[in-house]
Specification:
This protein is α/β, with parallel strands linked by helices. The chain folds into 2 domains: 181 residues, NAD(P)-binding Rossmann-like Domain (Rossmann fold), CATH 3.40.50; 125 residues, N-(1-d-carboxylethyl)-l-norvaline Dehydrogenase, domain 2 (Orthogonal Bundle), CATH 1.10.1040.10. 46% of the residues lie in helices and 23% in strands. It contains 12 helices and 10 strands. Helix 3 links the parallel strand 6 and strand 7. Helix 8 packs antiparallel against helix 9 and helix 11 runs antiparallel to helix 12. The longest helix has 22 residues. The mean pLDDT is 95. This is 2-dehydropantoate 2-reductase. Pathway: Cofactor biosynthesis; (R)-pantothenate biosynthesis; (R)-pantoate from 3-methyl-2-oxobutanoate: step 2/2. Belongs to the ketopantoate reductase family.
């Protein structure tokens, strides 16, 4: 007998997977979590999100798995892993996916879906997901949520025709809305990724190099100018690649960031814990696409070179 309620799987139960998975489970959805190092802690204590928006929330018990082979086939898969691990991601998705599964890729950067698509079974629907949320992992199964939570969703590829693809995105958006999460349906996921990159490429790398959060970066005139210049460079690259960026978009992002709680972006936490940073998806891909369109990004290139130096110093061994 077919399961009447769609089964949702979360691959990568860190800050993103933990927060959105908990919100969906809290709303009554059948959610299954794949974990690695945090498996035992989550099995014993569950997942807790300390939210400045929703209050303290705990999901316990958790339908948790350490091996994808033990998970039941899922109709929806939320992928919250970093883009740095995408080389190993496709077999895990294929093993967890039910026939015709919808896979939402919650990752920063450009062209993640484009690179992953050839590695996935044809029957899988691949969806781009962009999370506008301030959160970070405080410890095993512990997530701190400071603000926001909006999701953009756009169909990338699969066997669906245009009407079917639109229906899938509407279904996905409603699933999140029913769980208390604002969701928007995007006709052009590539444009959406460029728009998010305007903020991400600027604040992520600079927060690492200057060891500062958003409040300090915006209060200082020099760092504020640097952030603004980097934003405008990404806007220029997006437009050179044929995307229509809203007028004064960078200025509006800066204004909105001033009203956020002081925030240290995800790359800062990767650097702090000496994990690989998402350098290629946040910077390398934009530089390549910009160059192909005849647009130079000197500040972004310099930022990438400095970040690569920092990362090499803690990842390379003698």
């Amino acid at each position: 007998m077919q399961n009447a309620q769609p089964r949702i799987g979360v691959i990568g139960t860190g800050a993103i997977g933990g927060f959105y998975g908990l919100m969906l489970a809290r709303a009554g959805h059948d959610v299954h979590f794949l974990l690695r190092s945090e498996y035992q802690a989550v099995k014993e204590r569950g997942i807790t999100v300390d939210s400045m928006v929703h209050g303290s929330m705990t999901l316990n018990p958790v339908q948790a798995y350490q091996d994808v082979a033990d998970m039941p086939p899922c109709d929806w898969l939320l992928v919250g892993t970093k883009a740095t691990g995408n080389a190993d991601l496709a077999p895990i998705i294929a093993a967890a996916a039910a026939d015709g599964a919808k896979v939402i890729l919650f990752q920063n950067g450009l062209n993640n879906e484009e690179h992953l698509r050839p590695l996935l079974p044809e029957h899988i629907h691949l969806i781009g997901g962009l999370c506008y949320v301030c959160l970070f992992r405080e410890g095993p199964g512990l997530v701190k949520h400071q603000a926001n939570g909006l999701i953009d969703l756009g169909y990338h590829s699969g066997l669906a025709n245009k009407e079917e693809a639109a229906a899938i995105i509407t279904q996905a958006a409603q699933m999140f809305r029913d769980s208390g999460i604002e969701a928007r349906e995007m006709a052009n996921i590539d444009l959406a990724r460029w728009l998010k990159l305007v903020w991400n490429a600027s604040f992520n790398g600079v927060s690492v190099l200057l060891d500062a959060g958003t409040d300090a970066l915006l209060k200082n005139p020099a760092s504020r100018q640097l952030i603004g210049d980097l934003m405008e460079e990404v806007v220029g690259a997006a437009e050179a690649c044929g995307h229509a960026v809203p007028e004064d978009y960078a200025a509006k992002l800066l204004k909105a960031t001033r009203h956020m709680p002081d925030y240290y972006p995800s790359m800062y936490h990767d650097w702090l814990h000496k994990r690989p940073m998402e350098l290629d998806s946040l910077y390398g891909e934009a530089l390549r696409l910009g160059a192909e369109a005849g647009f130079s990004m000197p500040r972004t290139g310099a930022l990438l070179n400095m970040l690569q130096f920092v990362q090499d110093n803690y990842t390379q061994t003698e």
